[in-house]
Amino acid sequence: MHRFCHKITIFLMLLLFIGVVPKASADDPLNEYLVKAAFVYNFTKFVEWPPCRTDQCDSKELIIGIYAAEDVADHVGRAIASIDGKQVAGRTIIVRYITNFKEIADCQLLYVLHAELDDVKAVLASAKGHPVLTVSDMSGFARLGGMIELIKVGNKMRFAINRNAASDKSIVIRAQLLKLATFVIE
To answer: Which of 3, 19, 53, 169 is the most buried (most CB within 10 A)?
Structure first.
């Protein structure tokens, strides 16, 4: 019976991702960003952050930072804005643009979009020591030390997880999400 319930749970998780996340279209960048925003929203449901340790941390908010080049900020802003204000586990999602590396420590999730390799390394270094879930669509992001890499395969979006990077910051990625990943770096 337990095994049957486990299989049903995994099946329902797959339906959740398939049902909430529409197909990405290479011809429509805004639609692709909306798909990525839906993935980010769903990631927050299957991640556990360590408890807040500072007075500046509001346990009722989940801050999502966007680190993006200016030329794509409009598309990202419109897409991520669709999850601003939504509730996840009793917390309200607040979306902010990150304008300097010091602001990274205030985020629970940081979405890095179309950054140069040196910028990505600087962003990851700035997040070091802080429980910030790092997500990007940059090729090789998970292997560079990012936690979740969005991967476009044909017209579908997939993802890879760097479990070591998350564990190093006391971020727990639940087994349901790990099972859905294309690959996991242990």
So the answer is: 169
CA 40, CA 153: separation in Å to the nearest integer?
Answer: 17
| Token pair recorded at residue 55 | 């007075």
CB distance 134 to 127 below 8 Å: yes
Calpha distance 145→157 (Å, rounded): 20
- Those residues with Cβ within 8 angstroms of residue 79's Cβ, 6 or more apart along the chain or in another chain: 30, 33, 34, 36, 37
User: pTM for the full model?
Assistant: 0.81
Q: What is the pLDDT of residues 88-125, one digit of tens each?
A: 989 999 999 888 889 999 999 999 987 778 888 989 99
Q: How far apart are CA 177 and CA 15, in angstroms?
A: 13
